[in-house]
Amino acid sequence: MSKQKVAIITGGGRGIGAATAELFAENGYAVCINYKSNQPTANSVAKAISDKGGKCITVQADVSQEADVERLFATVDEELGSISVLVNNAGILKQQSRLEDMSAERINTILTNNVTSYFLCCREAVKRMSTNNGGEGGVIVNVSSGAARSGSPNEYIDYAASKGAVDTLTKGLSLEVAAEGIRVNCVRPGLIYTDMHADGGEPQRVERLKSIIPLKRGGSAKEVAEAIYWLACDKSSYATGNYLDLTGGL
Ligand code: NAP
User: Which residues belong to the active site?
Assistant: First the structure.
């Protein structure tokens, strides 16, 4: 019998991360659901997976913190075994605002949570996956955003710029580790129905903007999860360094 593959989903307790964790579990992966603060939602995703016979663990870790990331990966090594897939999904945004009202503290919080975190998790994944280090290879999928292209003026250009950095990380790392058995790609969702928009101060943001989307509707977390899964599985075996836009044509 082949070994069960292991996937880490950062920010897997709700939204796109939760849908991704459930989809990987349905496809036979042992899943680590990482969360930062919201233990009840992470536990309910884990319960939904276990109730269907899937294998998963939840690990609290703030992925913007180096020691937490190291503990997260060490816990997975110990409890699930060697990882095949990292989905860098955890991300934050702040209240809609113009640049002239943004403090250095806010900008740095966005960058450490959305960029430093992805770098740190990629680093720990590459250490384990790289054939240079005796690993068996693997796949990294970064969750970027259509905001990397639009720039999100008058809303959150700090967030948009952080996703631009994710795109560049994806390109550079994909080339750095391509000969070591590791593929690195990213998805760039557009307007997706999740609770993230409430954190920006506008829970109904997708409803307000859906008329400008060529497909005339917001996307679902499940639709993004399906694309993440495709990029992680062998069906996309010749894709690396790519960006898959999921924006309904926007
Ligand atoms: P969400 O519902 O707000 O979920 C984000 C999750 O990330 C939360 O569960 C949160 O955990 C976790 N998280 C945040 N910072 C973390 C940290 N430092 N360490 C560990 N976990 C952390 O957001 P979402 O809409 O599903 O978004 C998921 C990803 O898609 C993000 O990267 C986002 O930028 C991207 N995206 C979303 C949209 C959209 O329209 N929704 C569009 C484009 C891109 P806790 O709850 O435990 O704090």
Answer: 159
Q: Which atom of ligand 1 is nearest to the CA of 199?
A: 3
Q: For a substitution probing ligand 1, which of 14, 22, 205, 206 has the most ligand atoms within 8 Å of its CB?
A: 14
Q: How far apart are CA 42 and CA 37, in angstroms?
A: 9
Structure-token pair, residue 39? 């233990």
Of 68, 210, 172, the residue nearest 76 (C-alpha): 68
- The single residue listed with the structure tokens 């990482």 is 34
Q: Which residues pair with 141 in a beta bridge?
A: 87, 185
Report how far apart, in Å, the C-alpha atoms of 39 and of each of 12, 31, 34, 58, 67 are: 11, 16, 10, 9, 19
Q: What is the assigned CATH class of domain 6-92+118-144+160-189+220-243?
A: alpha beta
Closest CA to 140 of 239, 63, 49, 247: 239
Tell me how far the alpha carbon of residue 43 lies from the centroid of ligand 1, in angstroms: 16
pLDDT digits (tens, 9 = 90+) for 139-176: 999 999 999 999 999 999 999 999 999 999 999 999 99
Find the 88 Cα to ligand 1 centroid distance in Å.
Answer: 10
Protein residue closest via CA to atom 32 of ligand 1:
91
The string of pLDDT tens digits covering residues 18-69 is: 999 999 999 999 999 999 999 999 999 999 999 999 999 999 999 999 999 9
Global confidence as pTM:
0.98
